[in-house]
Amino acid sequence: VQLVESGGGLVQAGGSLRLSCAVSGFTSGDYAIGWFRQAPGEFREGVSCIRGNDGSGYYADSVKGRFTISSDNAKKTVYLQMDSLEPEDTAVYYCAAGEFVSATPLQPLWFSRWGQGTQVTVSS
C-alpha cells in the first residue's frame, strides 16, 4: 500500500483547507485510513480515521465539529476537510493505512503504512 498526501499550505486562522490522500495497492480485512499530525517537539497524534468496511468516521476531540473525513472509493482517495482552522492545528499531516481497532481507532501503532506528510500552517 502506498499513500500520497496533498493539499497542505498556509492559511489564516478561521480558514479552511482540504487534504487528499491517494491510496494505491491492496487493502484487505477491517482496515482504516487515518490522518495524523505532528507538530515540532510533539508526539504524533491521531486526528481522524475512516473505516474501510462501512465508511464510518472517527475524530479526535480537538477537531470534532471542525474536520470532516470522507472517501471516494472510485478515486481511491481519502479527504480531510478542515474548517475553522486554529494556529494550534499547525503541524505536518500524515495519512496512513492500517488495522481498524474499535477501542482506540486513532492509535498510531495500528497503522503500518504512512505517507510522506504535508505541512499545514495556520497563522494567527
Summarize the structure.
With 124 residues, the protein is mainly β. It contains no helices and 11 strands. Strands 2, 4, 5, 6, 9, 10 and 11 form a 7-stranded mixed β-sheet that branches. Strands 1-3-8-7 form a 4-stranded antiparallel β-sheet, with no helix packed on it.
Structure description:
The chain has 124 residues and is mostly beta strands. The chain has no helices and 11 strands. It has strands spanning 2-6, 9-12, 17-24, 31-38, 45-51, 57-59, 67-72, 77-82, 91-99, 111-114, 118-123. The strands form 2 sheets. Strands 2, 4, 5, 6, 9, 10 and 11 form a 7-stranded mixed beta sheet that branches. It has a 4-stranded antiparallel beta sheet with strand order 1-3-8-7, with no helix packed on it. β4 and β5 form a beta hairpin.
Give average pLDDT, whole number.
Answer: 96
Oligomer class: single chain
Spell out the helices and strands N to C: EEEEEEEEEEE
The residue fraction in helices comes out at: under 10%
β-strand amount = over 45%
Protein structure class: mainly beta
Query: Nearest-angstrom radius of gyration?
Result: 13 Å
Query: Which parts are unreliable, with pLDDT below 50 for 5 consecutive residues or more?
Result: none
Largest sheet: 7 strands, mixed
Task: Choose one word for the global shape.
Answer: globular
How widely separated are the two ends?
Answer: 37 Å
Task: Provide a count of the helices.
Answer: 0
Number of strands: 11
